[in-house]
């Protein structure tokens, strides 16, 4: 590897943001350990990786694995927690929400643009302007999860899959007896329809270009079998379909999406039960101030034995972002159950509310190794950054450890490459150890 290519990795600094969980609205509750979720994790960095398995391996016990960032406690409307009026006049919601006690409600704080949900009435993960990270992955379960901490694949809607010997074909077997929340069966037709439509639409929708680039044909050969052929060998295509962190391909219900314009269809009509879901929670309210889900009466995963029981919270409330101080105040006062705060505020919350905990308990580093390290990149095609000596000069002038010590109160980890040291990546990191000695990407040398 040339020095020019290697210096594109010139700076990786892990930024710490702390996820704090409180006991769910109970004055005498015991802190509940929160494990990293393989499907939607917060951007928390630490020096050590967890030794326990991520929440995606036990979805029924991970009541609060949705990634979150702070919001003011005053954004919690009475209607969401006590069953009052259904909310905004723009909402197609009649009557009132059912009463759900606070101690049975999980209030999660998530970063919403401008502290409002702009997509509260858009539950189509592929339409223009859709914000996929803010609740849609609660509605659309994946074919499989991937846990970076355990380096493990967890099959979910899919029961198995198999490539052809040349990796130009893939057969996916869907679990039987899965149903959407409106009673319609979830089958291979939903998977084939989703992928075929993405192939047809291409760049008009999210993931369309990726599917179009690889997929030649896709067909449901029976209710539980999907056969794909690829234009080129695609040995990682199933991994592309799986949920990891906040990425993954959503499988949509064919009986609702067929005939709709995916670029504008909102998939939102509560009077029709839209959006439908295969998951344990159903959307009951959407407004700029909050998104609310109620637990359904049943869930296919319990019947299939993948989950031991329904999840504990009867209601989920997702509130848009405030700032770290507001999130800390909400967690201190038990008006929120899950949020992300700064390193400085983490100690304040932990000291002020004994019912709170973090990924590492009440001791630093509070978070965990992030999948998206904080990095500095330059445009190597533009002067002066097309000169490798200029890029090395930038790198030598940056004291990464000082950035951690001063900016992050000493909590964080310098990385030699723009990737985290997850078990699955360790072989690749180890394989370039000699190059890193020759090209010291972390050296501070003015």
> Average pLDDT value?
80
Unreliable parts: 1-18, 24-79, 81-95
Strands, total number:
17
Number of helices: 14
Query: Which structural class do the helices and strands define?
Result: alpha+beta
Strand order in the largest sheet: 3-14-13-12
Strand content: 15-25%
Tell me the major beta sheet. Answer: 4 strands, mixed
Alpha carbon gap, first and last residue: 24 Å
Name the shape in a single word: globular
Estimated helix fraction = 10-25%
Oligomer designation: single chain
Alpha carbon gyration radius: 23 Å
Write the topology of this structure.
Elements: H1 3-6, E1 11-13, E2 18-22, H2 78-82, E3 105-109, H3 136-139, E4 144-147, E5 152-155, E6 158-163, E7 169-174, E8 178-179, E9 185-186, H4 188-201, H5 208-214, E10 215-222, E11 225-230, H6 237-241, H7 254-257, E12 281-287, E13 290-295, H8 300-303, E14 315-319, H9 324-332, E15 338-341, H10 343-352, E16 356-357, E17 374-376, H11 388-396, H12 400-407, H13 426-431, H14 433-438
Parallel strand pairs: 3-14
Antiparallel strand pairs: 1-17, 2-15, 2-16, 4-5, 6-7, 7-11, 8-9, 10-11, 12-13, 13-14
Helix pairs in contact: 4-5, 9-10
């Amino acid at each position: 590897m040339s020095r020019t290519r290697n210096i594109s990795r010139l700076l990786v600094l892990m930024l710490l943001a702390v996820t704090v969980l409180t006991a769910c609205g109970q004055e005498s509750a015991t802190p509940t350990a929160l494990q990293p979720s393989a499907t939607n994790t917060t951007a928390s960095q630490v020096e050590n990786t967890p030794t326990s398995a991520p929440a995606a391996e036990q979805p029924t016990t991970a009541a609060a694995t949705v990634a979150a960032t702070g919001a003011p406690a005053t954004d919690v409307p009475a209607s969401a927690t006590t069953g009052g009026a259904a909310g905004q006049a723009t909402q197609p919601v009649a009557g009132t929400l059912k009463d759900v006690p606070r101690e049975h409600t999980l209030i999660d704080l998530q970063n919403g643009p401008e502290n409002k949900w702009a997509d509260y009435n858009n539950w189509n993960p592929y339409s223009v302007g859709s914000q996929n990270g803010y609740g849609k992955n609660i509605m659309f379960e994946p074919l499989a999860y991937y846990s970076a901490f355990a380096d493990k694949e967890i099959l979910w809607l899919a029961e198995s899959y198999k490539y052809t010997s040349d990796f130009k074909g893939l057969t996916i077997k869907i679990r039987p007896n899965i149903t959407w929340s409106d009673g319609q069966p979830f089958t291979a037709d939903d998977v084939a329809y989703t992928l075929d439509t993405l192939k047809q639409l291409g760049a008009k929708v999210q993931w369309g270009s990726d599917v179009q680039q690889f997929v030649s044909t896709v067909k449901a050969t029976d209710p539980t079998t999907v056969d794909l052929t690829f234009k080129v060998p695609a040995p990682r295509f199933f991994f592309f379909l799986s949920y990891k962190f906040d990425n993954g391909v959503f499988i949509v219900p064919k009986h609702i999406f067929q005939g709709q314009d995916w670029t504008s269809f909102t998939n939102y009509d509560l009077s029709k039960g839209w959006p439908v879901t295969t998951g344990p929670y159903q959307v009951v309210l959407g407004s700029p101030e909050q998104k609310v889900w109620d637990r359904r009466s049943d869930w296919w995963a319990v019947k299939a034995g993948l989950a031991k029981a329904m999840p504990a919270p009867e209601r989920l409330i997702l509130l848009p972002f405030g700032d770290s101080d507001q999130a800390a105040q909400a967690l201190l006062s038990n008006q929120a159950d899950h949020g992300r705060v700064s390193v400085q505020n983490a100690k304040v919350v932990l000291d002020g509310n004994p019912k709170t905990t973090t990924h590492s308990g009440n001791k630093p580093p509070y978070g965990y190794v992030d999948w998206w390290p904080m990095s500095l990149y330059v445009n190597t095609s533009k002067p002066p950054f097309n000169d490798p000596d200029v890029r090395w000069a930038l790198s030598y002038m940056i004291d990464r450890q000082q950035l951690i010590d001063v900016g992050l109160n000493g909590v964080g980890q310098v990385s030699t490459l723009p990737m985290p040291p997850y078990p699955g990546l360790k072989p690749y990191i180890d394989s370039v150890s000699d190059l890193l000695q020759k090209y010291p990407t972390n050296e501070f040398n003015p």
